[in-house]
Amino acid sequence: MKLLRKYGISLVLLVLFLPCLQAQQEAMYTHYMYNTLGINPAYAGSRDALTVTALHRSQWVGFEGAPVTQTVTAHSPVRGDAVNLGLSFINDKIGPIRTTALFVDYAFRVQLTQRSKLAFGLKVGFNNYNFNLNELTLGNIGDGAFNLASSEFSPNVGFGVYYSTDNFYAGVSTPKLFNNSYVGEQLLSGVEVSKEQKHYYLIAGGLIPLTNDIKLKPTSFVKITEGAPVEVDVTGTVLFYDKFSLGLMYRTGDAVGALIGYHITEQFSAGYSFDWSWVNETGKYNSGSHEIVLRYDFMFGDQSRIRSPRYFCTF
Length: 315
Known about the structure:
Layout: H1 2-7, H2 9-17, E1 50-58, E2 68-79, E3 83-94, E4 97-113, E5 116-132, E6 149-164, E7 168-174, E8 181-182, E9 194-195, E10 199-206, E11 208-209, E12 214-225, E13 231-240, E14 244-251, E15 255-263, E16 268-276, E17 289-298
């Protein structure tokens, strides 16, 4: 216990990033249903408008070195269903390690029936992996093993499929197909600093009208990667008067949470969520996680084809 108190967050972070653990590495989102482009490139253009979404997540507040994530996405149809483009930016920091990603998304949509579409998406871009172990607070000042900093770029590609109707959607994707290794200088007798792992995502959701003015929107998000337990987010959101929403979330093995959203105007929406890691030991050492999401639709050209409200895109 004395050794653990002495090194504190330093030891925890080293364990987290040793590649032998093969743990999930991608940023976590409670608003996964409103940040879909970051998960699945086939979602690009699905709102039939130029949609810009910004999200900030502060995870495990009060825990030193805890993850902090910002994402900005923009996407729009360019040429009917044939060309839909998007741009995804992610900045994720945990302790001394920062990952910045920039990806271009492309989706091709096929009209299956009058009210259903199937889209195929491609994601192309790069990651910048930056770590600086000098930021760690050490019990043994001047330890040469921690005098290490590096910044590396690596390209990657991803793929996704997205099916949608007026009252249901489902998608499967893997945003990064390459298992890039980040070596730089060597750490702790030749162990690689980090290695990316492929993540497989499944998303689904439905719309259940309860009354004319109240609707239930159940959604789910399944995350699969080698060497880590399958993680499932299940969320139930109640939408009132197509304007205001309240929801509850459960994440297997990790957390429960609550969500609130509001349509400020037809084009501008805002949402907030709080989740608490009560399921595991982490919850004893932090004050929960906070997430804020903002979205704006720029509507151009023929707006008659834009459905309002768009139930799987609205808070």
